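Students often ask what a holo structure prediction actually looks like on paper. The answer is less mysterious than it sounds. You provide the chain, you provide the ligand, and the output is a string of discrete structure tokens encoding the 3D arrangement of the protein together with pyridoxal-5'-phosphate.
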Amino acid sequence: MNEKEIIDIENKLMANVFAKKPVVLTRGKGALVWDVNGKEYVDCTGSYGVALLGHSHPKVVEAVHKQAEKLISCHAGFYNDKRAELLQKIVQITPKGLEKAFPSNSGAEAVECAIKLARKFTGKPEIIAMMGGFHGKTMGALSATWDKKYREPFQPLVPEFKHVPPDNLGKVREAITDKTAAILVEPIRGEGGVRIPPNGFLQGLREICDEKSVLLILDEVQTSFGRTGKLFACEHEGVIPDVMCLAKPFAGGLPIGITIAKKNIMSSLKVGEHSSTFSGSPLVCAAACAAIDVILEEKLAERAATLGVYFKAKLEELQNKYKIVKEVRGLGLMIGVELRFDVLNIILKAMDRGVLILDAGKNILRFLPPLVIEKEQIDKAISVLDTVIGEEENERLRSATSN
Ligand SMILES: *Cc1c(COP(=O)(O)O)cnc(C)c1O
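The corresponding structure tokens follow.
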């Protein structure tokens, strides 16, 4: 199939729910991907933060290959060596006290489990989430997600969800009632525009939750496994949640999610009260074990911290150079660049020049590159951005003066 045929088929046969870019990607290695015509791109999207280890990491490929020949599926109604190995690794690396986990297949599923867990453990219905937060699009997770455009067409959603202004401990405290089971929050709001709460915010939440006997659920689906320069973003403040949701990158690109909680909390779910056919499937667990080994061995969190400083400094140079760049913010290799207008044009122009960039809302460019990205590849992304932002600024100045 050629490029046009592939695009036509997807447009015709797949639900039109994705804002697609007209590129057909067929191969990847490290932080590079190639399209069906052989054109090379520096991938600053990392498949929405999934390709943390880079594309098709050899150790993940080998682990998947080996496990595929041995056993691909094994329902969690039976025991399996790879599932046990993954659970051990996850409990070892996540913050102390998180000791019992439910493996699933996606971020939204990890959040669904956390919501059910909070209700079951506390016997209370209400979940408090943040305005601007994103937790996925299944009905439960969607009820916690903020953006109206995702929520409104599907009402009524799950009852007893409430949103409070973000980064405001006072508002959280006010919102808690006798019915509140949990506070659900992202350490950094990714989809919401790479928004970092003020220092001490997570710690403050932890204190309020302890005081009011409310569970603290951290959605680290996007911020985990080294992305922000620590293995988990909550480590920046030394905060331990009661429940943590993980997904996106830690199976080296295969679909995975996991909800990990304090032992007594997870133990409140009894046999049959929650499950999934693919929970802890051997193939995915083998990939995840290999991926976690790579993250630790290659010290990818440290790498994200170092390269993040470098990347951000280069972006700040662009901010100083161009008026249309409003703000650069980020932690590790999770970076947002806010422009003074819609970024779609910039994204398409950068793509033409071989750099893939995400958005996060209308005005914000988002960078979630593989943590194995090379300095030279960052330099290439910066040089392309320099060109396309420069062009855009000139065009805007020109049309402003001709008006
Ligand atoms: C991506 C994301 C989700 C949803 O994950 P899916 O795998 O798409 O269901 C949930 N929470 C956060 C913070 C995310 O970034």
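Residues 106-108, 111, 134-136, 186, 190-191, 219, 221-222, 247-248 surround pyridoxal-5'-phosphate (CB under 6 Å).
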